[in-house]
Amino acid sequence: MVCLDNNYDTGVFAFFLFIYIIKLFKCQPRLMVMNHPTYKFPKMYHQLQDFDVELQKQGYSLDDHFGLRLSEDFSHYHNTPLDLVPFGDIGMDGVHYGFLTDFGRVENLEEAFVVLISPMDSDVPHKIVARNFREFLNLAWTVKGALDLGF
């Protein structure tokens, strides 16, 4: 019989249980997060990526002047919703944005709500900031950057 007397024993037990589950399912920890292979990013997102590439050729970037770093390859934080397809971050405190898919109910990311995830904000780590990507860009432009949305 295993006796878990204190928090240390519980933490060690949880760690080894996690390792066991990973080995059992023969997967990497990152792959345990919901994957989104069926979703295509909005056309406007790709246009914004192209624009950022052009800006970088001139020594600028969306990050510098808009407060947004675009990325389709983003690791989830512990409080990132599993049904979120991340698309960018602001470069500090783990704050990132994503498309809320409602576990597959939203079929087109053009129509998905845009959510702000702020892992360091324990009170309200999730906020819907726009009804779709176009509205997100309009709002971010209005407030002079993605950094100010939701704060």
Question: What does this 3D model show about the protein?
Answer:
The chain is an alpha+beta fold. The chain contains 4 helices and 5 strands. It has helices at 7-25, 43-57, 62-66, 133-142, and strands spanning 69-70, 84-89, 96-100, 113-117, 126-130. It has a 5-stranded antiparallel beta sheet with strand order 1-2-3-4-5. β4 (113-117) and β5 (126-130) form a beta hairpin. The protein is globular. The model is unreliable at 4-8 and 26-35 (pLDDT under 50).
SSE topology sketch:
Blueprint: H1 7-25, H2 43-57, H3 62-66, E1 69-70, E2 84-89, E3 96-100, E4 113-117, E5 126-130, H4 133-142
Antiparallel strand pairs: 1-2, 2-3, 3-4, 4-5
Q: Key terms for this structure?
A:
151 residues, alpha+beta, 5-stranded antiparallel beta sheet, 5 strands
Summarize this, please?
The chain is of the alpha+beta class.
- Report strand order across the widest sheet: 1-2-3-4-5
Query: Termini, distance in Å?
Result: 49 Å
**N to C succession of SSEs:** HHHEEEEEH
How many whole angstroms does the radius of gyration measure?
A: 19 Å
Task: State the share of residues found in helices, binned by percent.
Answer: 25-40%
Shape: globular
Task: Describe the sheet with the most strands.
Answer: 5 strands, antiparallel
Main structural class: alpha+beta
